[in-house]
Amino acid sequence: MARLIKNNLIILIGNLIYALGIVLFIIPGGLITGGTTGLGLAIHNAFGIDVSVIIGILMVLLFIAGYIFLGKKFALGTALSTLSYPIFLFILQKYLKGYTLTDDRFICTIFGGLFLGLSIALIVRTGGSTGGIDIPLLILQKKKGFSLSKSLYFVDSIILLLQSFFTPRRGILYGILLVIIYTFTIDKFLSSGEIRNELEIISDYHSEIKEKILKDLRRGVTVYHGETGMLGKKINILVVVVSPREVFLAENIILGIDPNAFIINKRVMHV
Question: Cα separation of 40 and 88, whole Å?
Fold first, then answer.
């Protein structure tokens, strides 16, 4: 129960950050983006309808479609985002109307990308969903077998194209930069805290090295039994996973015991 409450709170915070990014940077900077927000901005530019109203209607309709075609479990996973995001957007637009942090489009692009990327990553890490435009694409994947990633690129390209009619050519370039920044932010944030270094150690002093790592670093060590390629000599290969900050400590321990130790240092994304 406590975990559910924590995850729902994080989803709310994520949607609040997303809405802040839209109100403080995307709209003031005249930037274009993909997804439901991009579609909302395109309709807003064409007809002058409030962005939060458009997004609210779109997300409710998409939520209903998800419930019908993808089931109750999927709908429950997207319900909080479906409700909270347009509400946050409406409140922030109302109370921050006319307020701008900066008129610099480049700064808006950078911080808009950071806010959007951080918010999406927060929601995804809880196992939640942002809902929106991915719902019909998931339906197409289920019913017709279409590739989700290819469909997403195709739909986002159309949404960006729709906005390009109301955006100068330089604005399109800023929009592409925005997508790159928030995609990079998502990748970095989702992998944060997960990146580790895997060390493989070959040494005649493997027993001493193993004991020292266990005692000083308090890290588990796995021993593989191997054989050299040229001479066919039986060897023991130590494998230990450490944080990036511990790499140099581990190497100092190893080389302090055996200066001729053979060490392979590999970066791993998830342990």
Answer: 15
Asked if 75 and 66 touch (Cβ cutoff 8 Å), the reply is: yes
| pTM of this prediction exceeds 0.90 | no
What lies within 8 Å, CB to CB, of 73 at 6+ separation is: none
3-state DSSP assignment of residue 241:
strand
Distance, in Å, from the CA atom of 33 to the CA atom of 177, rounded to the nearest integer, reads 10
In 3D space, the residue among 254, 247, 199 whose CA is nearest the CA of residue 224 turns out to be 199
Q: For residue range 64-102, what is the model confidence (pLDDT) as tens digits?
A: 888 888 777 667 768 888 888 889 988 998 888 778 788
Nearest CA-CA partner of 221 in 203, 240, 234, 207: 240
Q: What is residue 270's three-state secondary structure?
A: coil
Please name every residue paired with 267 in a beta bridge, in sequence order, or none if there are none: 197
